[in-house]
Fold each of these.
Amino acid sequence: MEKYKVEEHNHQLTAEHKKNFEFISSRIPDAKAIVQKLQEFQIAIPSWALGTGGTRFGRFSGGGEPGNLEEKIEDVGLIHALNKSSGAISLHIPWDIPNNAQSIKALAAQHGLRFDAVNSNTFQDQQQQQHSYKFGSLQHVDKRVRQQAIDHNIEVIRHGIELGSDSLTVWLSDGSCFPGQLNFRKAFQRTLEGLKQIYAALPDNWKMFVEYKAFEPNFYSMTVGDWGQSLLYATKLGPKAFTLVDLGHHLANANIEQIVALLLEEGKLGGFHFNDSKYGDDDLTVGSINPYQLFLIFNELVEGMDARNMNHATDLAWMIDASHNVKDPLEDLLQSVEAIKIAYAQSLIVDKKALVIAQEANDVVTAQEILQHAYRTDVRPLVAEARLLAGGALQPLQLFRTLKVRENLIKERGLKTVATGL
Ligand code: LRH
Ligand code: MN
């Protein structure tokens, strides 16, 4: 993405933007500090969500998909050039094995990208694999299957070390589909034993994220099925283990913002897989279904992180985990990053002192008014100003379309390339 194209785009929009930015800056305390925080706040893009996703009923590719890891890094680099908010990529192994780690690392650096958490995969059987994960991986009744899964995770850590990553995400599809199929206690003990061996292989400065999920692909029990189970594992593993909250991994109507507040209070919240959903693990665009919930989650995050003097930008892992069935993958990711930055900005303008006074006075009405005033404030000029100061586009999606990026990718890569991933 040539810089002059971004500057040309911004030149046309700057006057309108400045008017909007001055309007909101005059109505909130310390807009400058908020813009600074927004500039620092980077969200990692999943390497497995740069192509068209699908369901068991079908997959409708949009063309121009990245056919290898190099092209995936170029696509994340393009997103980052547009929004200056996606300065990291999260790899999934073996979907994206970096054959030559040094050249991959150099290519990423050229695009201003670092490598966030690396993800293991013991939920699919690979071609040359000796033992099947049909009945689980770390929970498996057969020690050889468990050892195979442990070895894979240690291999993933090795790839991460080569790339300069400093965290491993373990999501286990393990569980059962029918009552009586699984001994829950043994499954828990075996899984904990396996995670301990993986934990022992972590470099000193690394973190391990234990991602929980309520159901799918198992539909009776999941061996890491909710925040409580993940917290149990993370607590028994040690100080380098944390829970990972994927917004789509909860039972209906779960109060995710309360879960976040408590995991933060326990010092065991490691990070997020942001997406949105109406029913199950729908992996939809962040903020597309329930943007108020996303705001309430960030409100708890900012309140809890400030209470622990945590650095908003670096002390938790901010990652997207989405799948695109009907939208252009890059447009979908641009919308998701924007939704996350807007929710973060809204949470930064909450009048926290007044909220505490209302809460301590059981003034329920005023407490709601304070939150919804922030939620109903159009903070988009703050997010845009942060982008502008960072050299990004004032309207990334608009510029993506104006420059016919997808059309050019289709010319370059064709209609048939398929990106590895979901
Ligand atoms: C499981 C999950 C997990 C990934 C996978 C791609 O639903 O959220 O984070 O490994 O999606
Ligand atoms: Mn996830």
Amino acid sequence: MSDESSSEGHGPTVAADGSGDPDSPGLTVVHGASELVVGPDEGVGVETVADAAFAAEDGQVVAVGETEEVLREYPAENADVAVDADGRLVTPGFVDPHTHAIFAGDRTDEFEAKLGGTSYEDILAAGGGILRTVRAVRAADEATLTANLVEHLDVMLAHGTTTVEVKSGYGLSTDAELKLLRAIAAADEAHPVTVVPTFMGAHAVPEDREVEGYTEEVIEEQLPAVADQGIAEFCDVFCERGVFDAEQSRRILAAGLEASLTPKVHADEFADVGATGVAADVGAASADHLLKTDDEGADRLVDGGVTPVLLPATAFALGEEYADARRFLDGGTPVALATDFNPNCYARSMGFVVTLACVGMRATPDEALRGATHTAARAIDRTDGTGTLRPGAPADAVVHDVTAGVEIPYNLDVNTADRVVVDGEVVHE
Ligand code: NIG
Ligand code: FE
């Protein structure tokens, strides 16, 4: 989120005497937490502090520790924003590093068709799925797309997400992809959630096109236009059976890199077509899905320093087997978690994803919480402490209506997020 969106989204905090920077939240103190998730531990879990607090100045964490200690240096009565967690759990804001949250139209009938046994790939091959959303997005104006995304950001924020990656990819033409990316930028500006934009012109092959010619269009037309506008940070490709093969994906991602867009790969969702090798070779920030990844593919990601992003809500929605999270975790590699929110996977709650990671993929609650915060931030190259509450990190935090981390996945169906702080200001309660 930019500074401007911070003040637009929830208003400036001015010191009581009217002095100071009107955009600066000043001193924030969140205290009285039963348990506070600080950040990653030495292994693949999280470090927590009991009876804890943190203080932030101008939206950046400056101290974290036991409440008594933190309040000694930063008394709550001196704070511009003081939040009494009142014996409840505090975590870093959730980071959702893989969504297709900007779209138009309705695909609820496809949900019913899938329940009846029709496969996702059959729906796509028949011009439904992504291609149907593309038709709706092309017909929608930019303001509508922004408004749709803002509505989804409201829901995400209410569930404790403070940073979210959003992909384009339902435009599949230069104009429509740029329209989506501009709408993403406008939603970021208007909303306290930090939005990280990804260009995904290679999300599907448009109905009237063949894959090779369209690959060239993405490389020769779409990518240069996106780079010229400077409105995307990552370039993602659906490297999949019947979509873009490994060679086409490699070319698109290499061209993206030339245009300063960091690669990401949709890998092994339905079939293993070598996407993990592509991700490792191009130095992707992440490889996502990994439902059909074998040991060799997993090793290539680990050796290549590519963050695995697991999307258990997608497997849940498709009725597929979950990704093998333990293969990574048992080898000492943390995994990131994301919602994959899109019309095929209508999930906006990272708490739900944490539950699925534990119940479906046998992650421990600590491993899942790390996946939804610090490792998720790594998957979108956030190295400023996002996903932690360590000094220097953005003061993005959630007070949950429970007392311990384990209760986030334990609550199968209830949103535990109560109060949400972004950049040191309370933006949801
Ligand atoms: O990550 N697999 C490709 N993209 C999305 C699905 C998008 C859609 O069906 O609209 C995914 O699952
Ligand atoms: Fe996806």
Amino acid sequence: MCGLIGIVHKDDNVCEKIYDGLEYLQYRGYDSCGIAVIQDDDFQINKQTGSVSNLKKNYSNGKIGIGHTRWATHGCISIKNTHPFVYENLAIVHNGIIENYSEIKDRYADYEWKTGSDTEVILKLAYEYLEEYKNLQKDDNDKSDSLSVLEWDYAFNKLCENLEGSFAVAFLDLNHSDKVFFIRKGLSPLSIAVSDEFAAIASDCLALSELSDHVIDINNGQYGYIQNGKYEIKPGNINKKRHIIKSPKISEKSHDTWFEHEFDTQPMVLSNALHKLNNTFTWPSLKPNLIDIIGCGSAYLAGNVGKYWIEKYAKILCRINMSSEWQNIEGYSKTIALISQSGETADTLSVLDRIQNKEVSTIGFVNTLGSTLSRSVNHIIPTFVGQEVSVASTKAMTGQMLSLFLWANKLAGIDRQNELLDVFAKMSNIIDLLPEYSKEVIDVCSNVHDLFILAKGNLVPIAYEGALKIKELAYVHAEAFSASELKHGPLAMINQDASQAIVFLAPSSSHLWKKMLSSVEEVQSRGGKVIIISDQPEKFKNIHYSIKMPYIDEDLAPFLYVLPMQWLAYKLAVRKGNSIDMPRNLAKSVTVE
Ligand code: AGP
């Protein structure tokens, strides 16, 4: 994962500009970060573990520099493994994964590798190829499609031949101290912006949005350099300019954390999104007979709820897949709905790469407009919930459910929208009551090692979302099941002595209500500690812990029952003193496969 940036500027304070850009890129990883600036023909390096704000202490002056924010894939979190890396006259920052890095390291067995990172092999090879070029017999072949800096053209072609995996890389070279060199291979995005005053490159165009209104995207397999007022891209040099769709840099949050802000404002945000989806957006008129729905994490789970509505209302068969597990069935997969908050998730983007058959129609349920996914699909259905900052998704997931619910209505030619405002009012009500209503349940759950979340029907994906949120925020082992699956194995886990609690999502409107009453008794008969989340908790015998919910129609229950799941995860994380908006080992957008 990671985010990289490179800037050449006429002013001497390139460090501050790189720092501002890294703040935008932090959603791509915050394990450690660093900046390298060329000053007096040498590199000034500043590296820190943790988030970008740690870098603010000592800026070096300079007109050219590169920066990086890291999500560790190879090598532990340490200053040693923090980019930029320097070797001789070169400095490097990298986003992506070099899949054959250990073979390459073995090839240079005598070389003293300084880091545990895969990136270091790019640096070493680049240096070797630049040196190799110097000793090459120069031929006078046509160089029109080569980079004017021939040794780099040679090195980039050799890197493409020898490196496997996905990589976006920026280099500084003391031999060309007015240029930032770059190369892109695979899914890792890169965009550049150039004017007379500056030239810049970054993993996400938003990181350049304080410098420019438009960017040029670097395509897979291209390389080149930027310098003040000038750039070269090879092969092909045909890249079009596009405007940066700036999402308002939200600085104001009404709570200590973005998570709580985004959790609390969901009803308001969803009603705004509903308004926009109805009034400012033209729905694609598609008549699919089979839909492949794909996504990762919370997006995948929102897709599962969408499948329920589309199959129920529009009677259209849906295949739901985690992006990484999606298999293209030639001739069948004609309509593919790709769900993503960031629009930069590599596993989801890789599906586009795997679609050979061009007849396929792709629809992107995307929140970040201007993202790679939003620019790569045939149709976009925006989520319209505004920028989501907290890594653990709340409003984007409920927003994705909203746009999927509306699409299911449209595909079926029905209109249940009038019920949505009532749903938003009930969401607002339970958000206000949860702090009071959930106290006991949070006490119980914060004193157990294992949590099981059970549900039936269209709430099974919500149980999985609850388990996901508890894992990513509270770092507590949580598993979800369909309550019907219990007796097929998981019931063996239940016993009264274990440090565990079993949470049931049980709306009385469910056509499976009676079966849910039995499932709860099944667990109670094994001595399980049961927690009921329902509008009629009193209907369950011998229940000690419950959260009273408003009544809600079965089909719309996912919008409401996801809230106590988000809240429980948040409160358990607060109890443990965890970083709420930046959970350990995660990033807001997973840009490597
Ligand atoms: C959810 O809280 C997580 N941040 C994660 O599972 C996320 O949903 C997943 O990585 C997909 O991200 P996307 O929607 O940006 O593609």
Amino acid sequence: MSTATDTLGLAEKSLGELTIDDSKGSNAAVEQDSDDDGEEGNAADEGAETAQKKKKKNRKKNKKKKKAAGPGAAGQTSPPSIPVSQLFPNNSYPVGQLCDYVDDNKYRTTSEEMRAKDMLNQQQLTDLRRAAEVHREVRQYARASIRPGMDLTTIAEMIENGTRTLVEERGFESGIGFPTGLSINHCAAHYTPNAGDFVEVQQDDVLKVDFGVHVNGHIIDSAFTLAWNDRYKPLLDAVKEATNTGVREAGIDVRLGDIGAAIQEVMESYEIELDGKTLPIKPIRNLCGHNIGPYLIHSGKSVPIVANRDQTRMEEGELYAIETFGTTGSGYVREEGVCSHYAKTGDGQPRMQSARKVLQSITKNFGTLPFCRRYLDRVGESHYYLGLRNLVDDGIVTAYPPLCDVKGSYTAQSEHTFILRPTVKEVLSRGEDY
Ligand code: HZT
Ligand code: MN
Ligand code: MN
């Protein structure tokens, strides 16, 4: 990443100057940091180096971490170990891609009233930009590191450890936004390994990587697709272009159904040849994007990826994740297989003792943020399955099982988070990769 760091000034360019460029493709292209095997410390640190820091330095050396020189994200190690708050001091995180409003909302760019309203949300923006920078730096490492033959738990922990470190996980102030989705082939979403899952990603697989980062409950939700066989390129291109179309179409007063229509048109303009057969690429019609609230991954509105009659409009101030799914299958997902993802979505006092115990732990550790069984394991819960099922049955917890198209099909996903600021649309999760 080579980005400007200005946040509060008017020179809000940086990531906004990036063109939407899909030319790099999504094959886990190895973009290694420039090698610099020696020292780790920033120049600013060298003066006041404590014994603890020296110890840390040696540990890093032993693990052969690599760090490039220079400011900002270029100074991140591999694997990532430096909190983004250190790489971008004074709360000056990279600004996302800025898109001026069009048509009836053109006036917003320069309106004094809108600029004044915009100023009231600076802390939320800073939090979101910090979370987005964590997402970019973690995914850069993930894209370079994920290889066929790796098991999904290793991949999930790589992403989750990176997130926890770079965002400086601390109670409800900062942390993981939701479980790391690692869904393969006909499974489109909401698969993450439970304990004892030894599934490995294979050479000819299509892997969706969907993870979230939050700061003070402000969640960045963004996803990409990896494949190591070039034959999937049209499928991966389709979802990237479809998502970029949805993001471009989005704006204050735009009807959700119109965004779906634009996405569908782009997605259906693609086809793919597999084993000598040409297949249409379809949008998965029962998956959609959504708005996001504080500590709420789904805050009530859904963004379809096919045309529909929904006249609901996007509104000023809203935060959205637009995600599109393309498939060689039926274009419809069903719940399939063992559930891993859950979130507390209701209240109530369960009677069952094991339900009360796991609910206490959920409330204390995750609140309303989605979690998975591995996260319950790591906070020390065990033998909770019966209690958890009881909470789901009582409507206190919602289960989000894996969502899969027909067996033998391939699905891909692309997702970005953006905010409809009073003056401008900011695509927070935009990066050089996607
Ligand atoms: C649910 C549970 C999670 C939200 C979308 C999504 C991953 O399909 C309204 C529209 C994480 C996220 C969600 F653990 N879902 N984005 N990224 N999954 S959703 C949904 O349930 S609700 C879409
Ligand atoms: Mn997502
Ligand atoms: Mn989402």
